[in-house]
Amino acid sequence: MLLEDLVNNSLAKLNPTDLIVWRYIYAHKKECCYISIYDIADKCNVSRTTVLRFAKKLGLDGFSDLKMMLKMEISQAREKPSMNIAQATVNLCQQVGEEIAKQDFTRLNKLLYKAKRIFVYASGHVQRNVASEIERLFVNCNIFVYEIKGSDEMGIISKNVTSDDLFIIISLSGESKNVVDIAQKLHLQKIPVISLTRLKSNTLATLSTENLYITPIDLPATLDYEYKSLLGFFLAVEMWFVSYSGYCAEQIE
Asked: pTM for the whole thing?
């Protein structure tokens, strides 16, 4: 049985912290074959006991057994022909969709519904594309989102916002200095913030009112470097839009 099968069969036992450990392992299988339990605990910002407990919830004796399973899976994968890139993409979409479908958008919808003004700030190129997608989709619900283009513009706007406004901040790591500085100022001003980050403990998420988490996933590529798909960001935004559309309809009834 594959490690992924063990996780799927044990989902009822796993808590959100366990899932953080699993998603890190899933995204870094080769690395996790050789690092210690202390290393992975540090990478996930959890305790050694949490990692050990995760392994035991899967029915394993400890983290060493988990690493052994990973090594066997990687070894067997090398012996198999490369996966068809089209099938890999289908599998990716399914995995990302299933993960995001488990998230509850209710509290995000409430914040969005009562906000007088909505601002979105993105920390990188892909993130800015996600911000544009938020603008494009939510205008269909008469939600007008203003994208902040830079730190100077953010400085001007932050002087004129109130607790009736809402900020959406998109950052992969949630740790860049600029993003953290912005989040800290908004937190002090008690301005509601929704963060979109990868599923890992990060400063932006802790400073935010609500969080939407995404797991970047490795996609087989013919290049000499690993390719991480950020499809989850776009799919999460689209599913949020669908959820919000339904929420608005309920308010009218």
From this structure: 0.64
